[in-house]
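## retry 2 of 3
previous attempt timed out at serialization; input unchanged, resubmitting
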Amino acid sequence: MIRRSNRRSSTRSNLSRTKRTELTQAALKAVSASGAVLVRYFFGRAANSVQFKGRNDLVTAADLHSCRVIRDSLKSVYPNHDLLFEEGEFSELSGSRFRWIVDPLDGTTFHNRGLPFFSTILALEVQGFTELGICCSPVSGDLFIAGRSQGSEHWNRRLHIERRIRVSSVRKLEEAVIGFSYGKSAAHAQQAATALSRLLPVCRSITRLGGAEIGYVASGACEAFIDNSSTPWDFAAIALLVREAGGKVTDFAGREWNCDSKSIVASNGLVHAAVLRLIDFRSTE
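## retry succeeded, writing output
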């Protein structure tokens, strides 16, 4: 059974500095191993077979290989920790107070089609609180990382970037850049089309980049992101990143986002109410 948390992640962390550092280093090692695997498949150095789970939901050899290397990396250090993967066969849930929540390849379609807009997303939940969130895009080199009560940061070693980040100060939708997801089914896609038909005429731009764009909400490059097919592996880390950067994260009905939520709006907070007014999927909640 999947244990889900209804707790927000904005309260003070219970981890010691030493423990947080240790856990962060293990997470970064796992994400780095995943990135190396994903880049290998991306550039055609390994055959990338494809299976469809739904209209916009596929799993590839790269997904599964990334799952294996992340699982092996984390288990080599923390053999008793729980794991919750998007691909359920890799999950291990025994009731540990430490639970790693993993999306081994966010943006599978882009990755499979040769578009460099994909990420590995990793979160750590401790006793129901998300303590650590990482989103890494291996092609661009962008890595977004947040710790509970520690703020959010953007790293890019290639470009010599290591900075504390905050959401943008844009208040008007006509100046806003908004990211979105198509969802995982035909019904999700139709609902997304309805939302976009309302947002597109009033926004500066609508973008679809894969998981990294929500890191860009935290960094102030985008103002909001919407998705009507929320899952813990997609958004546990992302919610922490945006909240720690000063933003707001709810479902489409305006309730604070948690791992049970079926939709997500992550924003700088200033355009949040305006976005919610334009989208209406509450009947699906």
